[in-house]
Design a protein that fits this description.
By secondary structure, the protein is of the alpha/beta class. Helices cover about 40% and strands about 20% of the residues. The chain has helices at about 10-20, 55-65, 80-85, 85-110, 140-160, 185-195, 215-230, 245-255, 265-270, 280-285, 295-310, and strands at about 1-5, 25-30, 45-50, 70-75, 115-120, 165-170, 170-175, 200-205, 210, 210-215, 235, 245, 260-265. The protein has a 7-stranded parallel β-sheet with strand order 3-2-1-4-5-6-11, with helices on both faces. Strand 1, helix 1 (about 10-20) and strand 2 (about 25-30) form a beta-alpha-beta unit.
């Protein structure tokens, strides 16, 4: 099987390459071929194509060249704060790129399963918990609005043109190879702070919860969706359980000896954060998937990863 992964040199994309490269032809689309650290160990097993997903001629040429059986579209800007700094670029990379790929598949009449990676951010502040696939979306960021638009495009192209499209939304994921800056991944940022024995900054006494999922469970979920998911559908990838941040802080203190420093959340966070969040992932579990790694065990694995980098 030919599997094309846009953003395949990124956090989740690189772990997908690990999963698929031994038994499939994997084509990684990346805009920066000088930063392949996450997939260096796979370069003799995969095909790397350089293209920015906002360059539609380049992207379309790669799709025509390889004619993949599956496209997993992960490329994009994932920082909601940056979406306010450069909203037109966010539109190009997170929305127009999806529309372009869908249009290209339609034009080529290519039999290809198109899988869109989306985010819990599309929900905004949930009207009720747990969230599920029917929950109302009211995004609080430009990033969330653009991701939601991409989801709708997939649904339309499935309904109107019979394209084989599936969307998944991921909650707070973390693990090895992810960046550890707060604008990219809050969990990895906190784990790395603890690893460095620095103060662990947690907002508002840690008196809030998120649905946190370790990267290996994200990968197995995407594989399940690719193989068993129903065309035209949306699936939530999540742990399905609440992680209270005061517990997260306690685990980090226990595992590293670093100390939590509770701080007040900034105004920007108060305006845009989705607040408490947990997902009913029963639709995904109905495909035969289940969570395998607890958040605490995932933290241990991530700390081991940081240790091995030194």
């Amino acid at each position: 099987m030919k599997i094309m992964i846009t953003g395949g040199a990124g956090f989740i994309g690189s772990h997908l390459c690990d999963e698929f490269a031994t038994k499939n032809e994997v084509i990684v689309v990346t805009r920066n071929t000088t930063n392949l650290d996450r997939i260096l160990h796979l370069l003799n097993k995969i095909i790397v194509e350089k293209a920015d997903v906002t360059n539609y001629d380049e992207l379309g040429g790669i799709i025509e060249k390889h004619r993949p059986d599956v496209i997993i579209h992960l490329a994009g800007e994932t920082s909601h704060s940056k979406s306010f700094e450069n909203p037109l670029y966010d539109l190009d990379v997170n929305t127009k790129s999806t529309l372009y790929i869908l249009e290209k598949l339609k034009q080529l009449n290519l039999k290809c399963r198109f899988i869109l990676g989306s985010t819990f951010i599309v929900i905004g502040k949930p009207q009720g918990l747990p969230v599920n696939e029917q929950s109302i979306c009211n995004p609080t960021t430009i990033y969330g609005a653009n991701r939601l638009a991409s989801e709708v495009y997939c649904k339309i192209y499935h309904n109107v043109y019979d394209l084989d499209t599936i969307t998944f939304r991921i909650t707070n994921s973390f693990g090895p190879r992810e960046q550890y800056i707060p604008s990219k991944n809050a969990i990895n940022f906190l784990v790395h702070k603890a690893f460095k024995k620095e103060a662990i900054p947690i907002f508002d006494g840690g008196d809030f919860f998120k649905d946190v999922v370790y990267v290996s469970d994200v990968v197995s979920a995407i594989k399940t969706i690719m193989e068993e998911g129903k065309s035209g559908e949306l699936y939530w990838i999540s742990s399905g359980s609440k992680t209270w941040f005061y517990d997260l802080g306690s685990w980090l203190e226990e595992l590293t000896g670093a100390k939590v420093q509770y701080v007040e959340s900034p105004q920007y966070t108060k305006k845009t954060d989705v607040g408490n969040f947990v997902v009913d992932n029963s639709k995904l579990r109905s495909l035969g998937w289940n969570i395998q790694t607890s958040v605490k065990d995932g933290i241990k694995k991530t700390l081991e990863y940081f240790e091995n980098l030194n």
